[in-house]
Amino acid sequence: MKSIATIFMLILAFGLVFNSLNSEPVKNTVALFPAINLELQTGDLVFRRGKGFISDFFAQASEYEKLYSHVGVVVIKHGSPYVFHIIGNVQNGNKGLKMESLTSFCDGTQNSAFAIYRNGNLGGKQVEVENYLEAIKKNKIVFDEHFDLVTDDAQYCTEMIYKMFASVTGKQLSLSKFNEQSFVAVDNLYHHIPECHLILNHTYLPNP
After folding, report:
1. Distance separating alpha carbons of residues 58 and 19, to the nearest angstrom
2. Which uninterrupted H or E stretch holds 73?
3. What is the pLDDT of residue 54?
4. Which of 39, 189, 40, 43 is nearest to 126 (CA)?
């Protein structure tokens, strides 16, 4: 059997990315983004499920809940929530850390669902989260096409959150394994974690 990195590399070789924005959009959606009446915090995690088989593939890599395919972390800037996440786009060379508005990250034309979780271990760690992300940006960390947890100069989206959490809190989250190779599945970041609580989820429904 091929390692998980080999499988992911085959996908990337065909110009596909660990980023649901490249999935084929469904044009008819009830809403592009729902109204959110809650106060988000720096350190909240935003998970999304893109549209298309690539997002389905990465969602299936989770062991318990195969719901989401990509993740980013919220940073509050000037009173508004932004999402920082690592993408790999072999089509335009845009590989690495990206910042975009919460509305854009969860856009219903590109995604079928999203959820926001809050991990209590990150409470009061807003400065540390921002400093970690600033270091990612400064060091020009690129998307990890080899899905290698050992190296830090390239990271995939869940790996960045996993390592950010360890750096900020001093605690380790669990990992998944495929063919004896450890990797960070999406649900490793929120499932079976007592301190991690769902604060919002939303599924976009197609128009009849």
Report:
1. 10
2. strand 70-77
3. 85
4. 43
pLDDT at 38: 75
List residues bridging with 115 in a β-sheet.
Answer: 47, 201
Beta bridge partners of 203: 113
Q: What is the pLDDT of residue 145?
A: 86
Where are the alpha helices (H) located in the chain, listed in sequence order? Answer: 4-13, 53-59, 102-105, 126-138, 157-169
The answer to whether residue 28 is domain-embedded is no
pLDDT one-digit tens code per residue, 140-185: 999 998 899 999 999 999 999 999 999 999 999 999 998 888 999 9
Q: Is residue 154 part of a domain?
A: yes
The pLDDT value given to residue 174: 96
pTM score, two decimals? 0.84
Among the listed residues 92, 112, 114, 105, the one whose alpha carbon sits nearest the alpha carbon of residue 27: 112
- Chain centroid to CA 158: how far? 6
Residue 148 belongs to domain spanning: 4-21+39-203
CA angle 109, 46, 28 (to 5 degrees): 15
Sign of CA dihedral 162, 163, 165, 169: positive
176 within some domain: yes
- Whole-number pLDDT of residue 73: 98
| Phi and psi torsions of 96, nearest 5° | 135, -160
Residue carrying the six token digits 């997002």: 55
